[in-house]
Design brief:
8-stranded mixed beta sheet; 10 helices; alpha+beta; 395 residues; single chain
Length: 395
């Protein structure tokens, strides 16, 4: 077994800051995460959480918020706590096992925090697994390591709204053989709830031999915490190159600055009614006034960043599943594609950059994610949907 950690509120703040970079533009809004953690501090009731490797002997599940970051814009602590309570209750009823631990579906400013907030609410009866299913945030469930084992079935899958626990709660229990099918079914349910929902799935218990074991990427919560801590402690924002070097050291994955100190000069973003995913195109220029720019790049996203092109090159700069991570030397923080995060760097009302500079860091795919059967093909299908049908990067 690896190290055992106890995370307090300060650690959750560091995780949100680190995840805002590592998530590849997704995983929820960093601005919302900061607001939620502020509300948690005001509540004054957060119980420190045990974070450790999965012990292969405790009933577990993946616990997350699913849907559109923009639909969840202004997400509150109460909404998250209600979603966790409702979803966990429906899940436990569906599986017949009381939860003893939970794991994030992905690394993200919101989705790294959801299991930690849930464990805090349990007053020490639930621990959080130090890991996740992607080492980044992903648009859809099939792009995770949880899909790699026939023993770790995705269902029963529980979804529930954020209404106060009462007869007013809307919920659904899904049954489907694959994460891909669950994604399709859940998209409609999440849309019915208003664009986002609590979700609990991939049960791991005695009935399947505690099949979560070996099917997640270990250590990623602590990696996000360490990265965030370095940002929060820095007296001045670190350079993009220094952040990339730190990511590489913490994760063991190659990381490099691809763009340093560019400006966001155009944003096109919309939310799909069928999938509850935000899709968008971000334009990046090396001058605040795009007419003065000598280098232009376009970044395409489905919640998460999936591909970036330069107008000067016939091949992409970066292709998922490699992470396309945002960092700003102006603010010393990462951010997501959620509208409130982008507003710091791009003024939607004027259609112009705010003058704050942004950088893009490429982080190599976690080897376990790359080698999980079906994951690269799943990313390829997403890329085809946004117009890229070329070769996928090799491991």
């Amino acid at each position: 077994m690896g190290a055992v950690y106890t995370y307090g509120l300060d650690d959750l703040e560091a995780i949100a800051a680190g995840a805002a970079i590592l998530a590849s533009g997704g995983g929820g809004s960093y601005g919302d995460a900061c607001t939620i953690l502020g509300q948690l501090a005001q509540q004054g009731t957060f119980t420190p959480v045990t974070v450790k490797d999965y012990d292969g002997a405790t009933p577990a599940c993946v616990l997350a918020i699913m849907g559109s970051p923009d639909a969840a814009d202004g997400l509150t602590l109460t909404a998250i706590q209600n979603s966790i309570t409702n979803t966990s209750q429906v899940f436990e009823q569906a599986t017949g096992w009381p939860l003893g631990c939970v794991i994030p579906v992905e690394i993200g400013p919101i989705n790294s925090l959801v299991p930690l907030i849930g464990a805090g609410m349990s007053r020490g009866t639930i621990y959080v697994v130090n890991g996740d299913g992607a080492g980044r945030a992903v648009p859809e469930l099939p792009q995770t390591t949880f899909t790699g084992s026939a023993q770790l079935a995705p269902c029963p899958c529980a979804l529930a709204s954020d209404a106060p626990p009462s007869p007013l709660v809307e919920s659904a229990v899904l049954g489907a053989p694959t994460a891909d099918k669950v994604e399709t079914l859940a998209g409609g349910v999440v849309g019915g709830f208003g664009g986002y929902s609590g979700i609990a799935m991939w049960p791991s218990n005695k009935g399947n031999g505690y099949a979560l074991s070996g099917n997640y990427i270990p250590g990623t919560l602590e990696q996000a915490r360490q990265l965030g801590l370095s940002l929060l402690k820095a007296q001045t924002p670190p350079s993009t190159a220094a952040v990339a070097a730190n990511i590489s050291q913490l994760t063991g994955r190659a990381a490099q600055a691809v763009l340093t100190n560019f400006y966001i000069t155009a944003v096109t973003q919309s939310t799909s009614s069928t999938s509850s995913l935000d899709s968008g195109v971000i334009r990046l220029d090396n001058a605040q006034d795009p007419s003065q720019s000598t280098a232009t790049h376009y970044l395409y996203n489905l919640n998460e960043n999936l591909i970036m092109y330069s107008t000067a090159s016939i091949s992409p700069d970066i292709i998922a599943p490699d992470s396309i991570c945002y960092y700003s030397e102006s603010t010393g923080r990462g951010f997501s594609n959620a509208s409130d995060d982008l507003a710091v760097y791009f003024n939607a009302a004027t259609g112009q950059s705010t003058g704050k500079q942004v950088s893009v860091i490429q982080v190599a795919t976690a080897p376990q994610l790359y080698s999980t059967p079906g994951v690269v093909a799943s990313f390829a299908a997403l890329l085809r949907n946004i117009g890229y049908a070329g070769a996928m990067p090799s491991a």
